[in-house]
Amino acid sequence: PLFAQSGAQYRQWLEWCRSIGGTPSGTPSRPVCIPGGAPPVQGPTPEQLRQEAARAKHDEALRHWDRKDWDVVIRLLEEALALWPDNQAYAENLRKARENRDNQRRSEAYRRAFRAGNEAFDQRRWRDAIGHYREALANFPNDPAALKNIQLAEDRLREEQIAFDREQWARTDLQLANSR
Questions:
Q1: Model-level pTM?
Q2: Which residues of 144-153 are buried (b: 16+ CB within 10 A; e: fewer)?
Q3: Is the distance from CB of 116 to CB of 132 less than 8 angstroms?
Q4: Cα 70 vs. chain centroid, distance in angstroms?
Q5: How far is 170 from 180, CA to CA, in rounded Å?
Q6: Is the separation of the CB atoms in 129 and 153 below 8 Å?
Q7: What is the DSSP string of 97-122?
Q8: Is the dihedral of CA 139, 143, 149, 155 positive or negative?
Q9: Tens digits of per-residue pLDDT, 62-113?
C-alpha cells in the first residue's frame, strides 16, 4: 500500500492533489488524483428537493383539475406553494382553482334553487316558487329565466288573489241579499 505507513503522508498527498486543482479519488491504499477533474458529484440542494416536491404536488393537482375536483386541487396547490412560495404560476393556478370552485358551488346552488322553484310552480305554490327563484337570482343576478319565472309566478299569484277577492265579494253580496 502506498500510504499504509503514515496517515500524515496521505494528508500531505491530499493537500497536494487539491492544490493542483485535482480531485482526490480512490482509497488510501490506492489513491488517484484526477488533475483538473470535476468535483465529486453532489446531491440536489434542499431548495431543489423542495421544488421537486412542489412540482410533484402541482402535477397531481393538474390531474385533478381535469376532473374538476376543486377542493383537492386547491389543497395540493396550497401544499405546492408552501414548498415553493415564490412560484407565480402555482399562485395563479391556485387563484383560478378557487374561482372555479366558487363558480361551481354557485352553479349548483342556482340549479337547486331553480329546480325547487319549478316544483313549487308546478304545484301552484306561487310564493314558494317566487322565493326559490329569488334564491337562484342571488347566485346569478339578472338571470333572464329566473326573472321571467318570478314575473309569471307573481302574475299567477295576483290572478288567484283577484279570483279569491271576487269570490269573497260575491259571497258577501249573496249573504246581504239573503239577509234582507
A1: 0.62
A2: eebeebbeeb
A3: yes
A4: 4
A5: 16
A6: yes
A7: HHHHHHHHHHHHHHHHHHHHHHHHHH
A8: positive
A9: 999 999 999 999 999 999 999 999 999 999 999 999 999 999 999 999 999 9
Q: Which three cell numbers stand for residue 180?
A: 234582507
First to last CA, the chain: 139
* Torsion sign across C-alpha atoms 68, 69, 74, 76: negative
Q: Count Cβ atoms below 10 Å from residue 10 Cβ, excluding itself.
A: 18
What is the three-state SS of 21-74? CCEEEEECCEEEEECCCCCCCCCCCHHHHHHHHHHHHHHHHHHHHHCCCHHHHH
Q: Which helix (H) or strand (E) holds 1?
A: none
Q: Which amino acid would we find at residue 144?
A: P
- What's the rounded Cα separation, in Å, for the pair 101 and 105? 6
**Sign of the Cα pseudo-torsion (50, 53, 59, 61, in order):** negative
- Calculate ∠ Cα 38-42-44, nearest 5°: 135
pLDDT tens-digit map of 29-55: 666 666 665 445 567 888 989 999 999
